[in-house]
Structures are given as structure tokens and as C-alpha cells.
Design brief:
This protein is an alpha/beta fold. It is built from 13 helices and 22 strands. The longest helix is centred in the first third of the chain and has 21 residues, at 80-100. It starts with 10 loop residues before the first strand and ends in an 8-residue tail after the last strand. The structure holds flavin-adenine dinucleotide.
């Protein structure tokens, strides 16, 4: 079979910013990567990113300031060394994107920089106004195709197995899951993105089901920070409408949040009001919706000059127009939704995981740069910065140290009957996460979600450990990993808020790691 994962031929899984960039850099460094993706090449969270990508390139800015903002947003859990790598290497990675041809917006010949919540400087680069992710995805995709990199669309990673010193083998399936192939042992780079669409209310496209996390866990890889799911406070709300994100940059330009009565309910709750960190704004919006019984709150951008708004946010304006709204005149109805996975597969600074031969970068990885709360526009950047490090590592390996979590949970995972109504189970997972593992959690809800997820696992897991589980079994597992980590952390910190433990506790200034309890002799 054609796909190899070894030596100079790494198998890169996922075609968002992280996967495309790693594959390109591997090729430039003389390797022959193969890229696979379970959907079409361009379908990824990356494509939908609006606000932009952060880098300290402005005259009044510096990587040290970007680092300080990143540390502050992360609520005491950011790994300083990783965040330093992120912020200090950002300008060089932006130069790479420019070299590849990403058309960043400019003002008088200089790259234009926007402002977003919790950034102390204007440092957000954008393209096509609010089409940054689309521009990056399309540009990198074109470069990957120009470089003649082998790409296999509609080809899913189904499982990984450790092959000891030789690395890992991957089980991959194309042809709508009918056939499963096993690669030769070697190097696999996971760039499978986040898990937002496991939640009933989500800004993510349907591919974002956190499968990479489940697959790595099954193979025995260490995961960290799974309890930290970021909820975005301002996604378009209308019955039956898609959950379209209204980027935070809109608030950066001066829009404010109001309740139905027109009151700015965030004023007085935080000194930065609408530009407070995302978790604070998301919880305030959730509380306001709960208190008022009204299904949404409103983003009021009427104070921003019409021309400026339409030039900066053309896609948002086009979307709103389909609902008859003009942001220079109308308030925009918004609600919070699941948005971003801060934790994931634990990596060192070179993208190495705890399994020999397995690397991870982008949203699926837990590099430690986000801590308990990601700073806006640091995620596209993370995919590039650590993608570069993975590519270099494959060519010139250097030693590294994998972070050790302060608390380690060992989770047993059963085999099952392999008999379930899969769409129904998937639907139930989405409801369970939204209701019991959402913006505000508590022990009772988390325990009850875990019990039900265990029953669903009994129906969706294959009968034999040697069989590769399907996407719904992986959804049940990833949901359980989030809920298990959330139950373990008996405090509130960053994006993780427990109504039964509403305060931050110094003793919890540590990371929760999760490992599979016992591996079957032939891991799935
Ligand atoms: C609406 C929206 C707006 C955002 N705005 C911003 C922003 O302005 N700035 C910012 O920094 N971040 C933003 N983000 C977050 C950012 O887009 C993501 O964190 C980032 O794009 C993740 O990139 P990635 O390459 O890790 O994953 P993705 O771009 O999600 O790509 C994952 C890839 O893996 C594939 N895949 C998954 N599972 C498998 C499998 N089992 N087998 C094979 N392939 C698989 C998927 O099909 C996809 O190709 C936004 C996210 C959303 C949803």
C-alpha cells in the first residue's frame, strides 16, 4: 500500500493550518510527507477563522508584551517556556505566510493591525477583512498542491498503534470507511484540530469532533488540560440559523454588548467591560440570558462608522444582510457557544508526544501555551509555530522534556457491543456536553454525564480491542475525557467554571493529565 509513515515520509493527518504548514515545511526540508484528511482538503476550523492571527510586529509592540498578555489570559496555567516560543517565534512565522503569499490587509503599504480582547496592543493581522482563515487555508492549500505533496482526501485516521522503537503504525480508512489500511511503522503528525462540534451549540464545522484526542488516548498517549473548553460569547442567534461567529474584533473596533432593555450589562463586572477575557464575557452573557429569559443578548456596533465596519468585516456584513440586518443600524442578536479546545495531546516544545513517533500540533495538541484560557488569535499562530518545530524536529532531532501533569487520572475504557443507532448517540453526546459539561458545570451534572457516556460507550465501542472504533465511538470517548477532567478539577479557573466550586484555588495551579488505564495487548 502507498501510505507510509516512516523515516523521511511522515504521515500528516489533517489539512487545517497546522497540517498544511507542517507538510509544506517538511517538503522544503527534504522530506516526502503524505497528507490525509477525513473530508475535503479545505474543510477545517482554519477556514472559518475571522479575526486574525496575533504577532508582535507593530512599532509599539514586542514579543515580551505579547508573552505577558498570553500569560495573563491563561489564569496561572500557561507554560511560560512554551508561550515564550509562541510569541518570540511569531514574527518569523508571519514572514513565512507572507512568503507563501497570504494577502494580509495593509494600510499605506504596512500590514494593518487590529485589536482584540485582552491584548494590550493592536497586534492582530487579518486578510480579506474578516476572511483571515479562508485566505490562509486557500494559500497554503495552493502551495501544498504546487509542491506536489501527496494528498488523500476523504481518508480518515482510525487508530494508532505503538511499534516501540520504530514509531507508530496508523490505521487509515478511505472509501467511506469500508476498507482499513495499516501503514508501516514510523512518524505520524496529528493535526486533527479541536472538538467544538461535539457540543450542541458550537461555532465549529462538523469535522471538529476531537477524534485525534480519542485515537491518541486509545493508543496510550498522555493528554492534558481536557477540561478547558473555550466558549465564544458572540455567535449569531436566530432560531434555525447557523451559528455564525461574530468575531471579537468587532468589539475591538468599539461594539458593545447590551441586553434587551439596552443596558450594557458588562460595565461594572470587569474593568475592560466588553474587552474582558473571553471566559468572563461568555459567562456574563450566559448569566444575562438566564436572568432575563430572553434567548440572546445584542452586539451594538452602530457607533462604528458604516464604511469602516463594512471594510473591516465584509463577510459578517454579507451574512447579516441575508437576515435583513445592517450593523450600522441594527443590533446583532448573539449567544455563547463552544469554540476552542485548550487541552489535547500533551507535547513538548518540539511537538513530541509521549508515544515514540507520534507528534501533534495545532488545536489537537496541548503545548501549554493557552493555560486555562486562550488569548484570542493565538491559535492559528500556535499551529504555525509548533508546526515549524515539528518539521525541524523530524529532520534535526533535539532532546526535549515532556511536561508532567500535577494530577494524573487513569481512565479504563471498555469494549462494547458495537451495536447502536449511531446518529442518535452522536446527538445525545452533543446534548450531554452542552447541558452538563458546558459554560457552567457542577459535580452532579458531570457525574451523570459520565454515567450516561459510559453506557453509550458500551453500545458504540467495537466488541474486539483489535477493531478500529468509528467516529461516534471516538465522539463518546472525547466527550468522556472532557467530562472526566472537568470532574477532577474541583475549582473554577479560566474557561472551567464549577458552580459547586466557584473560586480559584491555589492548590489547583497544576495540570490534569489523563492516561488510559490498561492497554489491551494489541491496542486499537
Ligand atoms: C468560527 C471560528 C473562528 C475562529 N477565529 C479564529 C481567529 O480569528 N484567530 C485564531 O487564531 N483562531 C481562530 N479560531 C480557531 C482556529 O481556527 C483553530 O484553532 C485552528 O484553525 C485549528 O487549526 P488546526 O490545523 O489545528 O485544525 P483544523 O483547522 O480544525 O483542521 C483539522 C483537520 O483535521 C482533519 N481531521 C480531523 N479528524 C481527522 C481524522 N480522524 N482523520 C483525518 N483527518 C481528520 C479535519 O478534517 C481537518 O482537515 C476560530 C475557529 C472558528 C471555528
Amino acid at each position: 500500500m502507498a501510505v507510509r509513515g516512516h523515516g523521511g515520509r511522515p504521515l500528516v493527518v489533517g489539512t487545517g493550518i497546522a497540517g498544511l504548514y507542517v507538510a509544506l515545511r517538511c517538503r522544503e526540508l527534504g522530506l516526502r510527507p503524505t497528507l490525509i484528511t477525513k473530508a475535503r482538503l479545505e474543510e477545517a476550523n482554519t477556514r472559518y477563522a475571522q479575526g486574525g492571527i496575533a504577532a508582535a510586529i507593530g512599532p509599539d509592540d514586542s514579543p515580551a508584551l505579547h508573552l505577558a498578555d498570553t500569560l495573563r489570559a491563561g489564569a496561572g496555567l500557561v507554560d511560560r517556556a512554551a508561550a515564550k516560543v509562541l510569541t518570540y517565534e511569531a514574527p518569523a512565522r508571519i514572514a513565512d505566510l507572507v512568503r507563501y503569499g497570504v494577502p494580509f490587509d495593509t494600510i499605506e503599504g504596512q500590514i494593518a493591525l487590529g485589536r482584540e480582547a485582552a491584548h494590550s496592543r493592536a497586534r492582530i493581522l487579518h486578510a480579506g477583512g474578516d476572511a483571515t482563515g479562508l485566505s490562509i487555508e486557500e494559500t497554503l492549500k495552493a502551495r501544498v498542491l504546487d509542491a506536489g505533496i501527496e494528498v488523500r482526501e476523504r481518508t480518515a485516521l482510525r487508530g494508532l498503534r505503538s511499534a516501540g522503537r520504530e514509531g507508530v503504525t496508523a490505521l487509515i480508512s478511505g472509501d467511506r470507511g469500508r476498507s482499513v489500511e495499516e501503514t508501516e511503522p514510523g512518524t505520524v503528525v496529528l493535526a486533527t484540530g479541536g472538538a467544538g462540534s461535539l457540543y450542541r451549540q458550537s461555532s465549529n464545522p462538523s469535522v471538529a469532533t476531537g477524534e485525534g484526542v480519542a485515537i491518541a488516548f486509545r493508543a496510550g498517549a498522555l493528554l492534558t488540560d481536557m477540561e478547558f473548553i473555550q466558549f465564544h460569547p458572540t455567535v449569531f442567534w436566530r432560531e434555525g440559523a447557523p451559528r455564525y461567529l461574530i468575531t471579537e474584533a468587532v468589539r475591538g473596533e468599539g461594539a458593545v454588548l447590551r441586553n434587551e432593555a439596552g443596558e450594557r450589562f458588562l460595565v461594572g463586572q470587569h474593568r475592560d467591560s466588553e474587552l474582558a477575557p473571553r471566559d468572563i464575557v461568555a459567562r456574563a452573557v450566559e448569566r444575562e440570558i438566564h436572568r432575563s429569559g430572553h434567548p440572546c443578548v445584542y452586539l451594538d456596533a452602530t457607533g462604528i462608522p458604516r464604511d469602516r465596519f463594512f471594510a473591516r468585516f465584509p463577510s459578517v456584513c454579507r451574512f447579516l444582510a441575508t437576515y435583513g440586518l445592517d450593523p450600522s443600524r441594527d443590533w446583532i442578536p448573539v449567544t455563547p457557544v463552544a469554540h476552542y479546545m485548550m487541552g489535547g495531546v500533551t507535547t513538548d516544545l518540539e511537538g513530541r508526544t509521549s508515544l515514540r513517533g507520534l507528534y501533534a500540533c495545532g488545536e489537537v495538541a496541548s503545548t501549554g501555551v493557552h493555560g486555562a484560557n486562550r488569548l484570542a488569535s493565538n491559535s492559528l499562530l500556535e499551529g504555525l509555530v509548533f508546526g515549524e518545530r515539528v518539521a525541524r524536529q523530524l529532520v534535526h532531532p533535539v532532546a526535549g522534556v515532556l511536561p508532567t501533569p500535577g494530577r494524573l487520572v487513569r481512565l479504563a475504557w471498555p469494549t462494547g457491543s458495537g451495536r447502536a443507532d449511531l446518529p442518535k448517540v452522536f446527538d445525545r453526546v452533543r446534548d450531554l456536553l452542552w447541558e452538563d459539561v458546558g459554560i457552567v458545570r457542577n459535580g452532579v451534572g458531570l457525574r451523570s454525564a459520565l454515567e450516561e457516556l459510559a453506557k453509550l460507550a458500551g453500545q458504540t465501542e467495537p466488541t474486539r480491542p483489535s477493531e478500529a472504533p468509528g467516529p461516534v465511538a471516538n465522539a463518546v470517548l472525547t466527550a468522556s475525557l472532557i467530562a472526566r477532567a472537568a470532574l477532577t478539577r474541583t475549582e473554577s479557573r479560566g474557561a472551567h467554571f464549577r458552580s459547586d466550586f466557584p473560586h480559584r484555588r491555589p492548590a489547583w495551579r497544576l495540570h490534569v493529565g489523563i492516561l488510559r488505564k490498561s492497554l489491551p495487548t494489541r491496542g486499537s
